[in-house]
Structure formats: structure tokens, C-alpha cells
Amino acid sequence: MADRLALFVDRRDAGRRLAGALEPLRGHELLVVALPRGGVPVAFEVAKALVAPLDILLVRKLGAPFHPEYGIGAIAEGGVRFIRRDEVEMIGVSDEELERAVAAETTELERRQRLYRGAEEPLPVKDRTVILVDDGIATGGTAIAAGQALKARGAAKVVLAVPVAPPGSEQRLADDFDGVFCLAEPHGFSGVGQFYVDFGQVSDEEVATLLEQARIPGQAAAVENLPVPADPPPIERAVEIEPTPGARVAGDLRVPDNAAGLVIFAHGSGSSRRSPRNREVAEALNEAGFATLLFDLLTTEEELDRANVFDIGLLAERLLAVTRWAQGEEGVKELPISYFGASTGAAAALRAAARVGADVRAVVSRGGRPDLALESLAEVVSPTLLIVGGADWQVLALNEEAANLLRCEHEVAIVPGATHLFEEPGALERVAGLAAEWFSRHTRIG
């Protein structure tokens, strides 16, 4: 089976995405509290977006004496202990062993307190709504200990916010917090790091730097509200392309300033360049710095014959002709070309990519039917991302089977809970984000 695509580029990316989900809390008496070290870059972005102060709360996991990675509880500032008594008894940890583990972690906790805070006192939490942030949770023990510590200091509410957690975490932790925000609870969870492209260790120096920046009065708001010169509007024009003599198709070309590449869309199942879903993705790609070309694969007369929608050979030939047009068109001919295909259009994109070779820098499929291009899959050299809805079971199976035939770099990205048309709240935005990240990774020059 192909590798699954990570959900986040890095912790800062996760923080920006998490901040969007927390927007409903803006305007409350907020304090953002991070769990060092990994939670600090995430929380920094949340605090900046919500224009809220940032602090940390030191917490340390308690590992079993013979298996330190196996959590049996946690300790937090203020002498708070959270012990999983059932786990302790089940694996036979003695009281003496438990106390030695607590003593060792208390020493490390105090060292980090001195390192990160020095002589400064924690920010007051009394009567405030505290957003507790980490880069992800596994068992949730450290988060529970931190929440108890904040409540003991008088927080009015403690809301847990994390980018990723195991399935069922929101429900499991509901009784421990006043609210739980989790962007994704993916199946196949084995560790937080598997869902990040970059999950490098956060250094003590980075933690100290981010906290120092957050402590400068008004800096978060100032950074967020700095006047930014407006980007020039994208060049937008209607085009007409003649892929074969006598067959003319219409297209919409948008070219932002300093575009990093051109993404040509191949629609499917009879959709035209006016497909609202593809137009939404195209607009997101324009904002990410990519030019886009949406065009009608079929003429008005050809659309009358439903069989043409599934004529992958015909659709691929049209896409190839439009690619040749773009390679000679002023204003875009210097841009690296990629394909974005949906449904049957994805099969056409893969077949065309197999013909064009490395001149197609990347391919993204949304709810695609790569199984309709089986004979071409082994010849595709362009890095290929297959995005499928988690609730689109039949198409998911077809994509995972087809992915096994690809020899190029490829990944399968599953949008949890999404059906075939990605109509669920936030699903299409996730598609756009995945596509932008894939194209950025594989098509930017330099």
C-alpha cells in the first residue's frame, strides 16, 4: 500500500490550521498555554492569530521503569500528579519505583522551569479561558495533568487544542476539559510524528526564542497587523483552444504575479470549467502562488454523448493538446506544468502524464478514478498524490489498488469523513491545502 500523506507540513503549519478552528473563542479573556517543547511552535501561531498572550506549563510524562515510553501518568507544575493507577497495578510498578520516577521527572521539570522562565512568574490564569496546546496527543496523560494544574490555579475554563490525536480522543477526554478541539483523529494512528512532514525535535533555544517574542508587549498583534502591500490581482482571461481541427474548447486562465507553476485542471464525469469544486481549489492554488487553467475537455456537441465522459483516451488527448498550447503561450510557457484531475479527469491526467513524462512536474487526483488508466500507471514518472474521502469506501479501495501499480513517487491522502464530492464542512479546504503543499514540494523552481 502507498504511504499516507502527512496532514501538516510542520508545527507552525499545524498551529495556523488549529488557530482557524479556534476562531469562535476569539474575544474571550483568553490565555494560550503551550506544553513544551513540541507544543510551543504550534501555540505561538495560535496566540498570534487570536491576539492572545502565550505562556507555557511544564509537564513531564511518567514512564514505566522498564519501558520509559510506556506512560503510566504525568506530573505538572504546582505539584500536580496524574497517575493511571490501573496501569500501575497491571504492570506491577511498586510505590518505590513510582516515587523514583516522579523524583527524576521533577528534577527535569524544575530544570526546564529555570531555563524557560528564569525568575519570571507564570502569567495569571484566574478567571480566564485557557487554551492548552500541544503538537498532538497519544494517551493524553500529560494534557490531563496540565489541565488539572491550570484548574488548580483558578482557570475558569480549560480548552484542549491539538492538531492530531487517536480516533475517539475528543470523546474520551470530554470529561477532563471544558472543550476539546482536534483537527484530525486519523485511523492507523501510531504516533504524532507520522502526521507531520517535518517533525524534527524542538530545541530549548527555539522554545526560549518564541517565548521571548511572545513576551514583547503587543508583538503578536503587531506582527499580525503589519501593513502588507497588496498583491497585484491575478491576470485573468478567457481563452479558446483548438485541440483538434474544428474542435474548439473554452478555458479560464488565471496567472498571479510571480507564479511558481501552472496547474491544468482535468474535470470529470461531465463537469466543465465551471465546476464549483474545482474552481474553489483553483482559487486556493492562486492564493498559494500558482497559475491555473480550467478548460472544457469536450465541445458542446460532444457533451451530448454521455459515452464521451468515460472515453479516457479522448480526454487524455484533449489534455495533451492543451498542455502543448500552454507550452507555447506567452505569459505561462516558462512555468512548470502540473495536472489536477477529478473523477474520470484524474484517469485522463495520469494517462497524459505517462505520455508527457518529466515535463509534467506533479499530478494530484481528487476523488479520482486511476483504475480507468491502469495500463498507463507504471509509466507515470510525475510525483502523484491521490486524495480520497475517508467515507468514499469504493473509490478509496480503487485508489489504493491503483497506487500499488505506480512506480513514481506517490502517496494516498485520506480526508477523514469526506464523501466522494467532499461536500462536508472543511473537506474541500483540506483538499486544496494538500494539493498546494504537493505542488509546492514538487514544482517550485530552485
Describe this structure in words.
With about 450 residues, the protein is an alpha/beta fold. Helix content is about 35%, strand content about 25%. The protein is built from 15 helices and 17 strands. It has helices at about 10-20, 40-50, 85-90, 95-115, 140-150, 170, 205-215, 220-225, 275-285, 300-305, 310-325, 345-355, 375, 395-405, 425-445, and strands at about 5, 30-35, 55, 60-65, 65-75, 80-85, 130-135, 155-165, 180-185, 235-245, 245-255, 260-265, 290-295, 335-340, 360-365, 385-390, 410-415. The strands form 3 sheets. Strands 1-17-16-15-14-12-13-11-10 form a 9-stranded mixed sheet, with helices on both faces. It has a 5-stranded parallel sheet with strand order 3-2-7-8-9, sandwiched between helices. A 3-stranded antiparallel sheet has the order 4-5-6. Strand 5 (about 65-75) and strand 6 (about 80-85) form a beta hairpin. The longest helix has 23 residues, at about 95-115. The chain is elongated. Mean pLDDT is about 85; it is low at about 215-230.
| Helix content percent band | 25-40%
Strand order of the largest sheet: 1-17-16-15-14-12-13-11-10
Secondary-structure-based class equals: alpha/beta
The number of helical elements comes to 15
Quantity of strands, as a count: 17
Name the poorly predicted regions: 217-230
- Mean pLDDT metric: 85
Question: Separation of termini?
Answer: 31 Å
- Beta strand %: 15-25%
Instruction: Let me know the largest β-sheet.
Output: 9 strands, mixed
Envelope shape = elongated
Q: What is the alpha-carbon Rg in Å?
A: 25 Å
